TrEMBL record:
Keywords: ATP-binding, Nucleotide-binding, Transport. This is ABC transporter related protein. Belongs to the ABC transporter superfamily. Macrolide exporter (TC 3.A.1.122) family. It comes from Geotalea uraniireducens (strain Rf4) (Geobacter uraniireducens). It comes from the Bacteria. Gene3D superfamilies: P-loop containing nucleotide triphosphate hydrolases.
Length: 222
């Protein structure tokens, strides 16, 4: 009853005649509701592992299971559907749409998830309030600090009420004050039962984690 599971998941990239073994056969399980950090040196396979467990990419070998469903064998459209139901993503560089307000950035994720239009605005405001940004609902990303933009990105990731939040270096581009705010939000999401999985170099976040997955040279150290 792990919410995320991999069995001997391997991933190679071939560019021309060069093959990189980014992951060399990883078996792991992440319990529902846990706070898990994926740590390890740069270039050792952390982002690749995150892309596999998030259904953003498929393993070259082995299997990936999300909530009991083997995602590695789904076609693109079913993989996208499952991903949208189960997972919210947060990335290092926020990836907000610059021409839209904070609220609209959250609403657009709801549109994609099929949340009824009449519920979108009020739900977006609730999520922005949850990350402490109710008063910035009408601001454009360029009018927000990096930490505020990342909080909008977290609100957007929560648009579809996913069971799992997957984050790749969410504080990698933030100062320590903003980092603290993000960490407080992550703790509160963990407290309400979200499964949180974070690729991070941040020691404060890693200290909060219940599980640490150490990635080294494409393998997971126990
Ligand atoms: P980080 O060390 O912060 O995880 P990387 O530079 O290793 O950043 O990777 C960031 C992303 O860039 C990866 O998830 C992958 O999609 C892409 N990437 C990394 N290395 C290569 C490469 N050699 N060729 C093509 N894309 C790459
Ligand atoms: P990390 O996140 O730990 O920095 P990555 O998973 O991004 O590591 O990368 C692991 C290895 O795979 C690195 O050698 C990287 O250059 C390579 N890599 C990652 N993505 C790609 C890609 N899309 N194409 C080619 N090589 C890649």
């Amino acid at each position: 009853d792990m919410i995320i599971r991999t069995e001997n998941a391997a991933k190679s990239y071939t560019t021309g005649t060069v093959t990189t073994h980014a992951l060399r056969g990883v078996t792991l399980g992440i319990p529902p509701g846990s706070f898990t950090c994926i740590v390890g040196p740069s270039g050792h396979g952390k982002s690749t592992l995150m892309h596999l467990i998030g259904g953003l990419d498929r393993p070259s070998e082995g299997s990936v299971f999300l909530d009991g469903c083997e995602i590695s064998t789904l076609d693109n459209s079913n993989m996208a559907k499952l991903r949208a139901q189960k997972i919210g993503f947060v990335f290092q560089f926020f990836n907000l749409l610059q021409s839209l307000t904070a609220a609209e950035n959250v609403e657009i994720a709801m549109m994609l998830a099929g949340i009824p239009e009449k519920e979108q605005a009020s739900r977006a405001l609730k999520l922005l309030a949850l990350v402490g940004l109710a008063e910035k609902a009408d601001a454009k990303p360029s009018q927000l600090s990096g930490g505020q933009q990342q909080r909008v990105a977290i609100a957007r990731a929560l648009a579809n009420d996913p069971a799992i939040l997957l984050m790749d270096e969410p504080t990698g581009n933030l100062d320590s004050a903003a980092e603290g705010e993000i960490l407080a939000i992550l703790r509160s999401l963990h407290a309400v039962g979200k499964t949180i999985v974070i690729v991070t170099h941040n020691d404060e976040i890693a200290k909060t984690a219940e599980n640490i997955i150490r990635v080294m040279d494409g393998r997971v150290l126990s």
